[in-house]
């Protein structure tokens, strides 16, 4: 466990360990839950499809393509939950494959009105 104060800035890093030097990593979706084994019942969305859902969530520059850096302000789920657990989905793509999902950044889907 990592202990932090409320609203403290948390900085995280995800590293890809591979012998293939031609890969890049991208943070797609991150959610938080008070339960380490249940990320469906009570969750808080930090990012989805590469888009920030929380105003404090940010991606940060990385020194290498196989490292993704991001951060947000620490929070809690009402006082009855002492811990917050994260689950993040990362994508691995070929380095400099610009049409790949890793290079598209934030992808928001818009709903269309269904006319009769």
UniProtKB/TrEMBL annotation:
Keyword list, A-Z: Disulfide bond, Signal
Annotated ranges, domain ZP: 1-109
Superkingdom, taxonomy of origin: Eukaryota
Any single Pfam family the record assigns to this protein: Zona_pellucida
InterPro entries hit by this protein: ZP-C, ZP-C_dom, ZP_dom
Gene3D superfamilies, sorted: Zona pellucida, ZP-C domain
Keyword check for Disulfide bond: yes
Coiled coil: none
Entry protein name: DMBT1 protein
Organism, scientific name: Setophaga kirtlandii
Lineage of origin: Eukaryota, Metazoa, Chordata, Craniata, Vertebrata
Gene name per UniProt: Dmbt1_5
